[in-house]
Each structure stands twice: as C-alpha cells, then as structure tokens.
Amino acid sequence: MHDMTAQAVGDAARLLADLRLREAGRVEPLQCLPAACRPRTLDDAYAIQSAVSECLSRRSPGPTVGWKIGCTTRVMQQYLGIEHPCAGRLYRAGVHSPWVTLDVKAYFQLGLECEIAVRLGADCPPRRAGYRASQMSDRVEALMVSIEIVEHRFRDFAEAGAPSLIADDFFSAGCVHGEPVPLSDVGDPSVLSGGFWVDGEPPKLRGSAREILDDPMNALAWLADHGAAHGTPLRAGEIVTLGSVVKTVYPDAGTTLVARFEDLPEACVRLR
User: Fold this and answer.
1) Choice among 60-69, 109-118, 258-267 with the minimum mean pLDDT
2) Helix or strand or coil: residue 199?
3) Cα(241)–Cα(179) distance, rounded to whole angstroms?
C-alpha cells in the first residue's frame, strides 16, 4: 500500500514521462522530484512507475515488452549505494537485436551495462509461497547476452535516492540483446562470465553470472514475486535483463562495444 495521494502520483508520473520524451520544456536532467510528489517509500516508487508506464505506453515508446532488474550484483550495489534489487520496465521502442547504433547526444548521460537476459516461455502467476530459483528454469524459453542502455535522468543519483530512481524505471532506456539460445542448450547460466570488448580490445574487467544474487534464477524469482505483489505478473514472451556483471561504462561517441558471454551470441552497440 502506497502513501502518496493519487494527485501526487499522477503529478510525478507526468513529470517523469515528459522528461523521458523531452516534452513540456523538460530538456535538462532533474535535480530531484518536487517535494510534493517525491516518493519516500518503495511502494510509492512503484506506484509512480506504473503511472509512468500508462503515460508512455500511449506515446512513442510504445507498450512494455519486459523488465530490467538493477542492483543484483555486489559491484552495482556498491556503485549505486543501494543494497536491494530494483525493477524497471522495458519499452518496445528501446529494445534492439543484435546490434544498434545510438546517438550519444540523444541522452542526458548514456551508460551501458553488460548483462544476461532471459525470454520467458510461460507466465508466472502469483504463488502463495512465492517463487524459488529452482522453479524458474521451466519458465525460461531462452537466454541472451544483453547490453542494457541506461540514462541518468537525475543529475546526482545519490541525491535523488532509490525511490525516485525506481519511479523513473531505474535508469532504464532499453537494451540490445544477442540471438536467443534455448536454456536447455546452455545448462547452468550461473557458470557464464562476460564483459565488454571496446573497439576490439578484450575486457579489462569480467564478471560472472553467479554474482547475480548468487544465481541468475534468484533474480528472476525475485522479479516474479515482485510482479505478483504489484499486480504485474510476468508473462510469456517478456524479456528480462537480469543485472550488470561489471560496473556501468560511459563510452564516448565513435566507440563500438561488444558484450560477450561464452556459449552465447554477442550483442553490439555502436555510438555516434
């Protein structure tokens, strides 16, 4: 149960939607949401996020096609100063495969994250006992490399605070995923490791999928329970990108980044 009034939720949602679309004069990142419509709790944050989705789904981003989970690895929790997973939505216009060219100037501050993602083959209806990692594999149709596209729409994420970041889909600006591979062909996804090849150079840092809440299926189980609790149960066909295994990178225009995990087709972003 959230504490904000419907008016405050709506005001925050319209402001964030306008910011995302650069409408109503919103052409600069926010310092913070106005105090009158700033979420203080996670329930408030997700109520605003849902209202933002209603605004954006009727406009150019189109309907949601999946989810992102942030702060599922220690490296990202330490970087952002947030100790729990955070969910955000993926919109149709922001999802690409297996490569895309992005204009750096189209974003307030563009970041890229190296992740693995799943495509669901079955719904995840609410369960009284909740979900466990061992129950998620049967609901996963395919596994993919994913480059999450993130955008800093607040000037200082620490000052903005986790509830405001969640209200704004937790930096979500889309993803680029590699060709899907049946989970049965991969086996245990937690043994995979990956990183970014930048302009052909091998990665300086690599991360293991096991760092995603000790098992990527733990992250998916968390999201299934989260969705059930907030009236947005996961659906077959949705894409879920599970969290970055290395710290966010902020490359310049002219850079090409390729995300690779062994046994999975790569994903690529070219920046101009």
Assistant:
1) 60-69
2) coil
3) 14
Q: Are strands 64-70 and 207-208 parallel, antiparallel or unpaired?
A: unpaired
Q: Residue 1 falls within a domain, yes or no?
A: no
Lowest mean pLDDT among 3-17, 33-47, 51-65: 51-65
Average pLDDT over residues 80-100: 97
> Is the dihedral angle over the CA atoms 113, 119, 123, 124 positive or is it negative?
negative
Q: Considering its fold, how many domains does the chain have in total?
A: 1
Q: Are 257 and 198 in contact (CB under 8 A)?
A: yes
Tell me, yes or no, whether 144 lies in a domain: yes
CA dihedral (24, 87, 246, 188) positive or negative:
negative
Query: 49, 13, 34, 3: which is closest to 232 by C-alpha?
Result: 49
Q: Averaged over 189-210, what is the pLDDT? A: 94
Q: What is the CATH number of the domain that holds 206?
A: 3.90.850.10
Report d(CA 155, CA 62) in Å as an integer.
26
Report whether pLDDT(145) > 80: yes
Enclosing domain of residue 69:
6-271
* pLDDT band, very low/low/confident/very high, at 1 (cuts 50, 70, 90): low
Domain-located, residue 44: yes
- Res 30 pLDDT > 80: yes
Paired tokens of 91: 């919109």
Please report whether residue 199 resides in a domain.
Answer: yes
Quick one: angle between helices 42-57 and 6-21, nearest 10?
Answer: 50
